[in-house]
Design goal:
single chain; eight-stranded mixed sheet; four-stranded antiparallel sheet; about 25% helix
Length: about 500
């Protein structure tokens, strides 16, 4: 194994569904596939919340929202918190103290009061930085929104969802090819170009002398965070032309009318996405995948630039996303309250030629975004107590060809609303997934026989023992993570079918 810490190259997309990197998926991702063939594809990586800010805060801190304090969008007037919980740190300062050069290009969206520079990073091109979106007043919002209310039956533009008094959602659109790569009018182009310009300098250890290190031997960490494939699905023609909507199958769960699921799930589908016909759903998928393919092309540029430095063997490359998109599953798009895996399952591919065992394999170990901060500190030789993190170091999974017996057996989510505040938690093991919806009907799925989460078993008494076991795990994890939002015992809010008392006698050491 290597004797020096590796360089770290993080390429994090935004809102990319995990299945898009599966070899059998129709999405065209040749550079991600190349990375997987040379590294490890982790087929079960999940975010804690299907929302940018809490997931990115978890990635940066190694903590779940109950400990880092970010629950929803920090750049809106409806934010529960605008900053990380006082005393919570990200991995940046620890890496910098360990001798790493750090450079950040792209989407931050961790705090509205602090940016990457406040956490040890050199800022290249920053998007969704502190205060970027603003927090306008309700009166200002009324002034800038359209007053026009479409009349019943009024035609709408193709790919557009009407919202009276809010303005339409233009879900997808094709733009002309601009520039030598056909993406010159895309804002992320500046992000990628800044990363490409920084790579040779980082590889040469150009800032080593300034920070006390030896030039040419100082490890580096580069974060590259394009906004794609986040909605709206606006993509240049060259990428859209990769897909023929007529040949795209509707998602397996598209016909699910959500009859026995929470009412908000049905409302989202009926009020918004049922305006789109099946052909528009296919066109939306073509544009969503086109944006994924554009991000993949950028990944290829960055990998080629890394190869040119001669340091690819000594660099841990991570391709991943912050959360997914329903992308037509259950008739839904974007992300939000519905707890379906399409919004929580994210791609994760890692390559490190000098330090990774059995390249080309697929690992089914359960990962979550809290695992990366402790991994980076482990790589840098920084010792921190395991209790400092929700996650755990992934080095054992990189060094060995399979997960250890003590690896986690459960995955958890913490959701307290996007901008409408719903208390929702979920827990899943290898077979069953339970969703506690304190605001409405709970959900239980047998993922072995029902991988698309179409049949809700929560009301079936035959599965009460499964619910009790998963509730017990949920309460133990919530206690460990100081998740106080679900512990109120008052009669009108203590609505989980099995309360925290069921966890008294249970032992979950090593399961989380």
């Amino acid at each position: 194994m290597p004797t020096r810490p590796p360089n770290i190259l993080i390429f994090m997309t935004d809102q990319q569904q995990g299945r898009t990197v599966d070899p059998s998926h129709p999405c065209h991702m040749p550079n991600a596939q190349r990375l997987a063939e040379e590294g490890v594809r982790f087929s079960r990586c999940y975010c804690p919340t299907a929302h940018c800010c809490p997931s990115r805060a978890t990635f940066q801190t190694g903590l779940y929202p109950s400990r880092h304090g970010i629950w929803n969008n920090v750049s809106t007037p409806t934010a529960l918190n605008y900053s990380l919980t006082p005393g919570v740190t990200t991995f940046g300062p620890a890496l910098r103290e360990a001798g790493y050069q750090l450079a950040f290009a792209g989407k931050w969206h961790v705090s509205d009061t602090e940016g990457p520079a406040d956490h040890g990073w050199e800022e290249l091109v920053i998007t969704s930085g502190p205060g970027e979106s603003g927090r306008g007043s309700p009166r200002q919002m009324i002034e800038r929104l359209p007053s026009h209310v479409p009349a019943p039956g009024q035609p709408r533009a193709r790919g557009t969802v009407n919202r009276p008094g809010w303005g339409p959602i233009n879900l997808y659109r094709t733009t002309p090819d601009v520039g030598p790569r056909g993406d010159g009018d895309v804002g992320d182009r500046k992000v990628i170009d800044s990363a490409l310009a920084a790579l040779p300098r980082l590889a040469a250890g150009a800032s080593g002398a300034a920070s006390g290190g030896a030039s040419g031997c100082q490890p580096w960490c580069l974060f590259v965070g394009p906004h794609n494939p986040h909605d709206p699905f606006t993509a240049p023609k060259r990428f859209v032309d990769l897909y023929d909507p007529k040949r795209i199958d509707l998602p397996a769960s598209y016909e699910d009318r959500l009859a026995d699921r929470p009412g908000i799930y049905r409302r989202m589908r009926q009020q918004l996405w049922d305006q789109l016909g099946p052909d528009e759903i296919r066109e939306a998928l073509a544009h969503y995948w086109a944006k994924c393919s554009m991000a993949d092309a950028w990944l290829g540029e960055v990998l080629d630039a890394l190869d040119a430095t001669g340091q690819a063997d000594d660099t841990l490359v991570i391709f991943m996303s912050d959360h997914g998109d329903y992308a037509g599953a259950h008739g839904l798009f974007l992300k939000g309250v519905p707890a379906f895996d399409e919004a929580y399952h994210v791609p994760c591919i890692m390559r490190w030629p000098a330090g990774m065992a059995a390249p080309g394999r697929v690992s089914d170990a359960m990962l979550n975004l809290a695992d990366f901060a402790p991994t980076f500190l482990d790589l840098a030789g920084v010792n921190r107590p395991a209790t400092d993190f929700t996650g755990r170091s992934l080095l054992p999974l990189l060094h060995d060809s399979g997960p250890a017996e003590s690896w986690r057996r459960y995955r958890f989510t913490q959701f307290s609303g996007v901008e409408l505040y719903y208390t929702q938690r979920s827990v899943a093991d290898d077979r069953y997934k339970y969703v506690y919806n304190g605001f409405d009907t709970d959900e239980l799925y047998d993922l072995e026989s029902d991988p698309h989460e179409m049949t809700n078993l929560a009301a079936n008494p035959d599965f009460d023992s499964v619910k009790e076991r998963l509730c017990s795990a949920m309460w133990r994890f919530a206690a460990r993570e100081d998740d106080r939002r679900i512990f109120n015992p008052y009669g009108t809010v203590a609505l989980a079918p099995f309360g925290p008392g069921v966890a008294k006698e249970a032992s979950f050491d090593g399961q989380f």
